[in-house]
Design brief:
heterotrimer; A mainly alpha; B mainly alpha; C mainly alpha; A: mainly alpha; Four Helix Bundle (Hemerythrin (Met), subunit A); 6 helices; extended; B: mainly alpha; Helix Hairpins; 0% strand; elongated
């Protein structure tokens, strides 16, 4: 068992435990924080996989953007100190059953599939420069089209959020 | 990295996926449901990155997938928050159990 | 042979009359319905006479009157052998019957012009009369046994409609129901008999059926060897067919409907329950006569004894009844019993065999005349006295002179006094009985004495004795069989002297009286025999001394008791107290039937059947419905309106599909 394997297992335990706590915590703020830890753990996993750029993006966008956004919305909508209501008993039971069943099913399917062994000496190709060049590449394996589409999507999302969340002025006095 | 077989990473992401699914089905608060959705998206991200690293080490497709997923997740989270705020303003509650008007 | 179009018109004209009067009568023909109905039957009668004339002339081949089938139309084929054809058969008895039916129907139609005048449902009455005429003509002309059954039921239906004509009277409704139910029950036997016979003979056509069941051959052996409860199926078939005939002809024990059927208007009683419908059973047995004749079966024994018993029983009951129409009803039953046992004498010897057939048909012919005459006279009397009860009548011979003469002629005819019609036919019947079965002869002889007695009892009580209180009185007598007489029978003149009857009512009386006198002189045995070969007739001879003497004795006793009002009848009734009580209550047969139906059938069969139907059959359906409803309520809960539940169901579905596609459907 090499050190990197140990690191991996510790990371994965951290991720899973944080995720579990995030979905079961009774207080909403704590749930958000556990989510934050889980996402950070995932970023660590990316670092371990030697995908530094993805890890950075994960931290900047997910942790720094989305979790913060969630925390803002918690503040905006309710008192964060109040306990969340307990889940409906019947549904919780069935959900646990469904989740476990699904997990078992997927694992069985995965086991049955023979993945090819990792390429020997897979050196890091994912440098920022190559990612950038590939992203805007118009030839084969280029992703310029999805890039443009995502920009439009982001624009639409922005406009949508503003419209939805806008306070309508009262018409009559 | 060579010591950990790909399949262990896949188990991790699968477990994360189903944890997120449990949370999606069980939590009664819209914001917590959103958090569970983020967990699910992240599990998918892990899958893509792991496949890229293990199976297609000379290419970058998995990285791009995960980048795009992150971007879209961010947009979706923003819209969801906007909707939640709107709902809160109108109904003063974001308990999902109360929205059962399509009941029999 | 007569053109088949004219033959087919004979029943179809009254059918057209029924349809037209039934559909349009109330609007267009409310006053002239009678004329239309009568006109239609008049044309039919003329055609019938013409057909008879032509048949007697042209139907003669090889020394006998043959059977002809001028019209045949295949209606429904079950198998190459068995098919229901609508066919018309012409042979001596069918020609005789169409003459009798149309003639009596015409008389009744004319009589009803006066009797039912002013009735609110005049057109309906005539349409029903036309329907009946059509059905009866179809019945006698039918050449296929199933066709007979169809018209049999139609006749029963017409009878029901006419008995219940005054439907606002509960007694009339009950009587109509009773008639229909009893005859329908008898028709069950008829149908089973038809099925047995036709199945084994593999045909429904009369000629072929008779041929196959009388000539030795594989079919005949088949039906004779097959047996059920030890009796051959041929006997069963014939007895069951006779059961149907017994129901329609009011033979014991299926006679209970006939007295109650007198609730209908009197012309209806004259037509249906005296002259035509009730002889349908006799006609049926005559149609199948060669098969009944076949010596191995005992079916003819059944016919013989049932007929004799009915004749005697009815005569005894008639001696005690006080309702004029009921006396006549029991008299009808008795006379039909005569016809039946004449047909039943076939079993015994060759000579008697053919004589019984001719005698029965001859009696049917003459009986139609004098019985219809009796009923029509009764109609006049009832209208005069406004009551059916003999106790309200008396001394009417001055008030109703024509009726008196006609009634007397009819009574003499029915008692068998020469030279009136009944003498010849009754003598033939008694001769057939003498040659066949002496005990039955003695029963017949005694019954003819009783017949004379009760008919003259009726005659003397109505026309002699003390005149009842004033002629303008509306008597308080019980049942008004002739109800609804708004204008029937003439206008009431001031001063209390009523006209006897309008012309339309007197004309049929006269014509029928002439028939009752002269019908016996028809050389019947030369025309109507079972195989068409003429036989010599029997005139007045030594044999007729006994019947005539017995009849005269009966008349004398009746005169002694009833000619002058006295207490002699009461003392006679007291002397025979037991028998009198039994006879007065009609031997309690109705009570027995009522007991059987109420206590046995309703309680033991009807109630459990209803319980099963309500609780088990309905219960099963209700249970299924309840289960479905519960399941539905359960499933309904899935539609909770909550998104997370739906997401759960989604996932379960996807997982299921994944399992199927990955592991099972590889």
């Amino acid at each position: 068992m090499s050190a990197s394997a140990v690191v991996f297992y510790i990371l994965s335990v951290a991720i899973l435990v944080s995720a579990l706590l995030a979905v079961t915590s009774r207080k909403i703020f704590r749930s958000a924080i556990w989510l934050l830890f889980s996402l950070t753990g995932i970023a660590g996993l990316y670092f371990w996989l030697q995908m530094e750029f993805v890890a950075a993006v994960q931290i900047v966008v997910y942790v720094g953007g989305i979790v913060v956004l969630i925390i803002f919305s918690i503040f905006l909508t309710q008192q964060s100190g109040k306990d969340l209501p307990k889940p409906v008993r019947r549904r919780a039971v069935f959900a646990i059953l469904a989740a476990c069943a699904g997990f078992v099913l997927t694992c069985m399917v995965l086991r049955g599939y023979a993945f090819p062994s990792p390429a020997a000496g897979g050196g890091p190709v994912a440098s920022v420069g190559s990612i950038g060049a590939q992203l805007l590449n118009t030839s084969e394996h280029g992703y310029v089209l999805p890039f443009e589409v995502i920009s439009i999507l982001l624009l639409a999302a922005m406009i949508g959020c503003i419209v939805i969340a806008m306070k309508t002025k009262p018409d009559k006095k | 990295m060579n010591q950990v077989p790909l399949i262990h990473i896949l188990f991790l992401s699968t477990a994360l996926f189903f944890v997120g699914m449990y949370g999606l089905l069980t939590r009664r608060n819209l914001i917590t449901m959103l958090m569970s959705v983020e967990l699910i998206l992240n599990s998918v991200n892990i899958n893509f990155v792991a496949f890229n690293r293990y199976l297609y080490a000379d290419r970058l497709d998995g990285v791009f997938f995960s980048l795009f997923i992150v971007a879209i997740a961010a947009a979706e989270a923003a819209v969801a928050i906007a909707i939640i705020i709107n709902l809160y303003r109108n109904f003063k509650s974001i308990d999902v159990e109360a929205a059962d008007e399509m009941k029999f | 042979m007569p053109n088949s179009v004219y033959i087919v018109l004979i029943p179809l004209l009254p059918l057209a009359g029924f349809v037209v009067l039934g559909l349009f009568g109330r609007r267009f023909f409310s006053r002239s319905a009678g004329l239309l109905g009568t006109g239609v039957v008049l044309v039919s009668a003329v055609l019938a006479v013409w057909v008879a004339w032509r048949y007697l002339g042209a139907g003669w081949t090889d020394g006998h009157f043959g059977q002809y089938v001028p019209v045949r139309w295949n209606w429904l084929t079950f198998s190459p052998g068995i098919s229901i054809e609508m066919s018309i058969i012409l042979d001596p008895i069918s020609v005789m019957m169409i003459f009798v039916v149309t003639f009596i129907s015409l008389m009744v139609h004319i009589y009803s012009l006066g009797y039912m005048k002013g009735e609110p449902r005049y057109a309906t009455y005539y349409s029903f009369l036309n329907l009946f005429t059509f059905s009866m003509l179809g019945l006698v002309l039918a050449g296929n046994i199933f066709e007979t059954y169809i018209f049999w039921e139609l006749v029963g239906c017409s009878s029901f409609l006419l008995i219940g004509y005054y439907f606002d009277r509960p007694s009339a409704v009950r009587a109509a129901n009773k008639a229909f139910i009893v005859t329908r029950f008898a028709d069950l036997g008829f149908l089973i008999g038809i099925l047995i016979l036709s199945f084994h003979a593999e045909t429904l056509d009369f000629r072929t059926l008779i041929e196959r069941l009388t000539q030795p051959g594989p079919l005949l052996t088949g039906i004779m060897t097959a047996s059920f409860l030890g009796i051959s199926l041929l006997s069963w078939g014939l007895v069951l067919v006779f059961m149907g005939g017994a129901g329609k002809s009011a033979m014991f024990p299926l006679h209970i409907w006939l007295p109650d059927a007198m609730e209908g208007p009197t012309p209806v009683s004259a037509l249906i329950h005296a002259a035509t419908m009730v002889v349908a059973g006799v006609y049926l047995v005559a149609r199948l006569y060669p098969v009944y004749m076949y010596p191995v079966t005992d079916a003819s024994q059944v016919v013989l004894y049932v007929g004799a018993l009915s004749a005697l029983l009815a005569a005894v009951i008639a001696c005690t009844q006080t309702d004029i129409k009921r006396v006549l009803a029991y008299s009808t039953m008795s006379q039909i019993g005569y016809m039946m046992f004449a047909l039943g004498t076939v079993h015994y010897s060759g000579e008697a065999a053919t004589l019984g057939y001719t005698a029965a048909m001859f009696h049917l012919f003459t009986h139609a005349f004098f019985k219809a005459l009796l009923f029509l006279c009764a109609g006049v009397i009832i209208h005069r006295v406004h009551s059916n009860e003999m106790t309200a009548m008396g001394g009417l011979r001055r008030a109703l002179p024509l009726t008196h003469v006609c009634f007397l002629i009819a009574c003499l005819a029915i008692s068998g006094i020469p030279p009136f019609a009944g003498f010849f036919s009754k003598e033939d019947i008694l001769l057939a009985a003498w040659n066949a079965n002496k005990p039955v002869y003695y029963i017949g002889l005694f019954t003819s004495g009783l017949t004379a007695f009760y008919m003259f009892r009726l005659y003397f009580s109505v026309f002699w004795g003390r005149p009842m209180v004033g002629s303008g009185d509306h008597g308080a007598g019980g049942d008004h069989g002739a109800g609804g007489h708004h204008g029937a029978g003439g206008r009431h003149e001031a001063g209390g002297h009523h006209r006897e009857a309008p012309f339309t009512m007197k004309l049929p009386l006269v014509i029928l009286a002439l028939g009752a006198v002269f019908a016996g002189w028809v050389p019947f045995s030369r025309l109507v025999t079972y195989d068409g070969v003429p036989q010599a007739g029997h005139g007045i001879g030594v044999f007729s001394i006994a019947p005539v003497t017995v009849a005269l004795i009966g008349i004398a006793i009746a005169a002694y008791l009833y000619r002058v009002v006295s207490d002699r009848p009461k003392r006679a009734a007291v002397a025979f107290r037991g028998v009198y009580q039994f006879a007065y209550h009609k031997f309690y047969i109705d009570e027995v039937y009522s007991f059987i139906t109420k206590k046995v059938i309703f309680n033991l069969i009807g109630r459990p059947a209803a319980w099963v139907d309500r609780n088990i059959v309905d219960g099963l359906m209700n249970f299924l419905a309840a289960v479905t409803a519960r399941i539905a309520v359960g499933i309904k809960g899935l539609q909770s309106g909550k998104v997370q539940d739906y997401a759960l169901y989604f996932f379960v579905g996807i997982a299921g599909l994944a399992i199927i596609f990955i592991y099972i459907y590889t």
